[in-house]
């Protein structure tokens, strides 16, 4: 594309491009990214100067620079010294160029399991199963524990009180969930995570674990191979075992999951589970090149990708990387999230964004497995989001968790100079790698018996028979006040010294 035609893509930001809740730099970023993904801007095309775009589109030059920085960070553009900003040399854009029509899947490409086939033969009758309550506790250094003492209880109580005055809360809730909450989630995900969906695609669950269980039960057949990251949440393994699936753990590095579509494993499997925004628990971000390769594989092999976006709300520096689902033009990504980390564990609310071809099947299945969730709880959460309480809470927690992370990392560096901090720009925990002289599981066993609640990195590693075991400690900082950290780190130091003497 010549320079003039590239300039013609940029017009003043009109009403069809803007959203009053979306910063101007994000609007420009999305506009340029869409042009690249659909081939209107091609590899090595030069983008107009920031001064030109500022004048042409009626936004500040700082907004243009911020948009360029984000495009460069995500791999869509590159800066060439003395020459300007250019569209990056991305070869793997095939999944984004419209070759696969969005949301147009024939029945022949919708792979469902034997469980799903049995579900489709059952008469559409409702059934309910009571769910249990999970206690919330405040433990020192417990990963995934939010700052309960800093939760805005007054705002939440007010939203709960209003939900109890809503007569709709006392009616049986739709299988997909309360309309108000689903609408708020779809709007929130679009603005904050780049997830493209309508309200009909959002299903409310008791958390990301239930979402995962539903998806795997309906899409994976017994003895079928499922790919996942070599280090991750053990709850996934439990679901895979329960359905009789074969799991293959793929290695990871600083760029996230190491994925090779030509590998025999990738050709055999038809389901991939991953945490692309922040791998658990190491916090790696999947590169753009690998994201595109995974989508290409999913389209070519008619496979499913389950994206767990468990704590992407907590990014302390810069802009969070957009969800993988936002790049999916072929409706192969199932997106899951939870409120248990951002709100409080006892809320038991999560969500799943489904490709349109799966909505009816998943809706029908959910009627039989739980019969619907609490109406007042869902409506309260919807009101809390609609009235701005949720976004205000997230902003406060980002600031608080950033301070707590810095404090914990500083204390750990002082006390354990031979530990290696795994770099991370967000989340709710820090990971410290240990050398061979330490056993992370022995440390955690004794530490947790003495009032700490830390986790061993090796306990999250899969396929330890074929790969070296990585030893490390996972310490949560989100729910631990700064003033309690020195005593906790000091206790950990004494425990490790006592274990070292016994070696």
From TrEMBL:
<dbReference type="GO" id="GO:0003677">
    <property type="term" value="F:DNA binding"/>
</dbReference>
<dbReference type="InterPro" id="IPR015421">
    <property type="entry name" value="PyrdxlP-dep_Trfase_major"/>
</dbReference>
<dbReference type="InterPro" id="IPR015424">
    <property type="entry name" value="PyrdxlP-dep_Trfase"/>
</dbReference>
<comment type="similarity">
    <text>In the C-terminal section; belongs to the class-I pyridoxal-phosphate-dependent aminotransferase family.</text>
</comment>
<keyword id="KW-0663">Pyridoxal phosphate</keyword>
<dbReference type="InterPro" id="IPR051446">
    <property type="entry name" value="HTH_trans_reg/aminotransferase"/>
</dbReference>
<dbReference type="GO" id="GO:0008483">
    <property type="term" value="F:transaminase activity"/>
</dbReference>
<keyword id="KW-0238">DNA-binding</keyword>
<dbReference type="InterPro" id="IPR036390">
    <property type="entry name" value="WH_DNA-bd_sf"/>
</dbReference>
<dbReference type="InterPro" id="IPR004839">
    <property type="entry name" value="Aminotransferase_I/II_large"/>
</dbReference>
<keyword id="KW-0808">Transferase</keyword>
<dbReference type="InterPro" id="IPR000524">
    <property type="entry name" value="Tscrpt_reg_HTH_GntR"/>
</dbReference>
<dbReference type="GO" id="GO:0003700">
    <property type="term" value="F:DNA-binding transcription factor activity"/>
</dbReference>
<dbReference type="Pfam" id="PF00392">
    <property type="entry name" value="GntR"/>
</dbReference>
<protein>
    <submittedName>
        <fullName>GntR family transcriptional regulator / MocR family aminotransferase</fullName>
    </submittedName>
</protein>
<keyword id="KW-0804">Transcription</keyword>
<dbReference type="GO" id="GO:0030170">
    <property type="term" value="F:pyridoxal phosphate binding"/>
</dbReference>
<dbReference type="Pfam" id="PF00155">
    <property type="entry name" value="Aminotran_1_2"/>
</dbReference>
<keyword id="KW-0032">Aminotransferase</keyword>
<feature type="domain" description="HTH gntR-type">
    <location>
        <begin position="22"/>
        <end position="90"/>
    </location>
</feature>
<dbReference type="InterPro" id="IPR036388">
    <property type="entry name" value="WH-like_DNA-bd_sf"/>
</dbReference>
<keyword id="KW-0805">Transcription regulation</keyword>
């Amino acid at each position: 594309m010549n320079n003039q035609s590239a300039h013609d893509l940029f017009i003043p930001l009109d009403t069809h491009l803007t959203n009053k809740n979306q910063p101007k730099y994000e609007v420009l970023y999305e506009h340029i990214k869409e042009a690249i993904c659909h081939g209107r801007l091609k590899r090595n095309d030069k983008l107009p100067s920031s001064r030109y775009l500022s004048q042409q589109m009626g936004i500040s030059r700082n907004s243009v620079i911020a948009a360029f920085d984000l495009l460069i960070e995500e791999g869509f553009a590159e800066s060439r010294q003395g020459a300007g900003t250019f569209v990056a040399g991305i070869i793997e854009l095939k999944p984004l160029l419209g070759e696969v029509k969005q949301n147009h899947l024939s029945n022949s490409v919708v792979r469902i399991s034997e469980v799903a086939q049995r579900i489709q033969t059952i008469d559409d009758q409702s059934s309910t199963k009571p769910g249990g309550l999970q206690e919330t506790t405040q433990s020192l250094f417990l990963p995934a524990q939010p700052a309960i003492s800093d939760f805005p209880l007054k705002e939440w109580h007010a939203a709960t009180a209003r939900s109890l005055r809503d007569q709709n809360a006392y009616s049986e809730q739709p299988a997909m969930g309360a309309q108000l909450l689903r609408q708020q989630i779809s709007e929130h995900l679009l603005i904050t995570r780049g997830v493209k969906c309508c309200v009909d695609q959002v299903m409310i669950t008791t958390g990301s674990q239930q979402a995962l269980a539903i998806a795997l039960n309906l899409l994976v057949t017994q003895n079928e191979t499922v790919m996942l990251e070599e280090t991750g949440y053990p709850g996934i393994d439990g679901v895979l075992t329960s359905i009789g699936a074969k799991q293959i753990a793929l290695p990871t590095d600083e760029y996230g999951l190491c994925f090779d579509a030509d590998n025999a494993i990738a050709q055999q499997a038809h389901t991939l589970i991953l945490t692309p925004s922040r791998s658990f628990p190491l916090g790696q971000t999947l590169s753009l090149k690998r994201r595109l390769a995974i989508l290409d594989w999913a389209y070519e092999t008619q496979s499913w990708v389950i994206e767990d976006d468990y704590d992407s709300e907590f990014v302390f520096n810069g802009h969070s990387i957009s969800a993988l689902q936002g790049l999916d033009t072929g409706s192969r990504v199932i997106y899951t999230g939870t409120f248990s980390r951002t709100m409080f564990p006892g809320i038991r609310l999560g969500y799943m964004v489904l490709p349109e071809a799966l909505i009816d099947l998943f809706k029908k299945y959910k009627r039989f497995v739980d019969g619907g969730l609490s109406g007042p709880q869902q409506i309260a959460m919807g009101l809390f989001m609609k009235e701005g309480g949720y976004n205000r809470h997230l902003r406060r927690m980002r600031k608080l968790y950033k301070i707590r992370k810095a404090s914990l990392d500083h204390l750990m560096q002082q006390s354990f100079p031979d530990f290696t901090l795994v770099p991370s720009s967000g989340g709710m925990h820090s990971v410290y790698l240990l050398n061979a002289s330490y056993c992370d599981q022995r440390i955690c066993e004794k530490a947790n018996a003495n009032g700490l609640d830390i986790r061993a990195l090796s306990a999250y590693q899969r396929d330890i028979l074929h790969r070296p075991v990585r030893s490390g400690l996972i310490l949560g900082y989100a729910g631990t006040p700064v003033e309690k950290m020195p005593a906790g780190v000091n206790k950990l130091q004494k425990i490790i010294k006592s274990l070292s003497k016994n070696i």
